Structures are given as structure tokens and as C-alpha cells.
């Protein structure tokens, strides 16, 4: 039996309800929340400047593998809004809270993780975070959904320094879970998950909840998380 499985987080283990996979359509509303949190109002010129910053760091609009910190990105947003540098933390909290306001685990997530733990399978998470999001925000989502007790290792793209499909995160996850990279199964829902896992030498599994069946070269394809148990 293979003894280590890594998972992507959003749209794999967790669902962010009411939030589009693409954050850009709601930038202005999120920025408005951030301004209110600072006790301020913003006009169209300030909002336009801040949106331009967010678009520049939006990895769906401008893909990159090198990660950039929340401090830098939200610091630039704060400056674009015309706020004081010391306001950046409040801006960041309000911005991310807007997008993390409703997070749940998929119905089979906890039972699947519990069964993996009972089988002695080490479970880890490797996740790309949006806009350099700090680890504490990721840990809050794990805690809020009740999966934190079933995951032994969490790596974010900020800690790794690179985003998927760069191989370095997968290799580090295997090392942290104490298995050779060839014995790591990695489950994700995007092409970069499959491409990165394959390039690193891990066994890639596509979680394809909508039955799209894309040809991304995955080692295996599942439509529900609990199907992973049949691959061990």
C-alpha cells in the first residue's frame, strides 16, 4: 500500500461557496469592503488603480510560477487606494475575508481523510494561495471546516516560493511526508496539478467532479474523493 497522499485544497478538499474561481469580477466589491474597514470611501480612480494592481498579480490573467507575498501585493493595493502604509493589514484582512466568507468541506472529504488516517496513510496538502495569502488564513479554513486534525502537513506556495506546476512543491511535500516522490499520490482538480505532479515524478490523480474528462495525462481520474481509497 502506498502510504502518502497529497491534496490540493480549493475545489478538491474544500468548496468556497458563492465565490467564483476567478476573483476579478468582484474586485471592486471586495475593495469597497476594505475601504469601509479602514473607515474610508474610494472613488473610481482609486478603485481603478487598485484593480490594475490585482490584475497584475492575478495568476489566471498573468500566469507565473514565482510566488509573491501578501505583504507586497496588498501593500501595493493599499498604496493604489491612497491609504497609509499602516492600513495594509486592515485592507488585507477585509479583502481576503470577502472571498473566504463561506468555506465548507465537500460531503465526503472528512470521512475520506479519516479512513486514510485509519489506514496509516500520511496526508498532506500542497496548495497555491491567491495573492500571496498568509498561512494563517489557510489554517483558519482548515480549522473552520474540521479537516485540520486529519492533515499532517500543509505547504503553501508562499512557503515553497513557487506555484504549481513547478516541481519543487511536490518534491518538498514528499520529503515532509517521508516517502520517495514516486510513492506520493497527488490529487488535484486543475491541469497545473497534474502537470506538476507528473513532472516531479509523483502519481497524479485528477478529481473530476463534473465529469469533463480532460486529457491532461493523469495517472488516474476520480469523480469523488472517496474513490481514492480504491487506488491504494
Report on the structure:
This protein is an alpha/beta fold and 232 residues long. The protein has helices at 27-37, 44-57, 70-80, 88-99, 109-118, 135-145, 157-160, 168-176, 191-200; strands at residues 4-7, 14-16, 103-105, 122-127, 153-156, 184-188, 203-207, 220-222. The protein has two domains: 4-17 and 103-231, 3-Layer(aba) Sandwich (Rossmann fold); 24-99. It is 40% helix and 14% strand. It has a six-stranded parallel β-sheet, with helices on both faces. β4, α6 (135-145) and β5 (153-156) form a beta-alpha-beta unit.
Q: What proportion of the residues is helical, as a percent range? A: 25-40%
Number of domains: 2
What is the averaged pLDDT score?
Answer: 95
CATH architecture descriptor of the largest domain: 3-Layer(aba) Sandwich
Instruction: List low-confidence stretches.
Output: none
Q: Looking across the biggest beta sheet, what order are the strands in?
A: 5-4-1-6-7-8
The CATH class designation of the largest domain is Alpha Beta
Instruction: Count helical runs.
Output: 9
Overall spatial form: elongated
Query: What are the secondary-structure elements, in order, as H or E?
Result: EEHHHHEHEHEHHEHEE
What is the structural class?
alpha/beta
Amino acid at each position: 500500500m502506498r502510504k502518502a497522499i497529497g491534496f490540493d485544497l480549493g475545489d478538491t478538499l474544500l468548496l468556497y461557496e458563492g465565490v467564483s474561481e476567478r476573483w476579478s469580477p468582484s474586485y471592486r466589491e471586495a475593495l469597497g469592503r476594505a475601504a469601509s474597514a479602514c473607515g474610508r470611501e474610494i472613488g473610481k480612480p482609486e478603485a481603478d488603480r487598485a484593480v490594475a494592481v490585482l490584475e497584475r498579480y492575478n495568476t489566471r490573467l498573468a500566469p507565473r510560477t514565482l510566488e509573491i507575498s501578501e505583504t507586497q501585493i496588498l501593500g501595493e493595493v493599499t498604496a493604489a487606494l491612497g491609504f497609509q502604509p499602516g492600513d495594509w493589514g486592515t485592507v488585507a484582512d477585509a479583502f481576503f475575508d470577502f472571498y473566504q466568507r463561506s468555506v465548507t468541506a465537500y460531503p465526503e472529504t472528512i470521512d475520506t481523510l479519516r479512513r486514510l488516517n485509519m489506514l496509516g496513510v500520511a496526508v498532506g496538502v500542497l496548495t497555491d494561495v491567491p495573492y500571496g495569502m498568509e498561512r494563517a488564513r489557510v489554517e483558519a479554513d482548515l480549522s473552520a471546516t474540521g479537516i485540520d486534525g486529519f492533515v499532517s502537513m500543509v505547504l503553501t506556495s508562499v512557503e515553497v516560493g513557487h506555484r504549481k506546476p513547478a516541481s519543487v512543491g511536490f518534491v518538498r511535500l514528499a520529503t515532509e511526508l517521508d516517502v520517495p516522490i514516486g510513492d506520493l499520490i497527488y490529487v488535484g482538480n486543475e491541469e497545473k496539478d497534474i502537470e506538476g505532479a507528473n513532472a516531479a515524478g509523483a502519481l497524479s490523480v485528477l478529481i473530476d467532479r463534473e465529469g469533463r474528462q480532460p486529457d491532461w495525462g493523469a495517472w488516474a481520474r476520480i469523480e469523488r474523493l472517496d474513490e481514492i481509497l480504491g487506488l491504494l
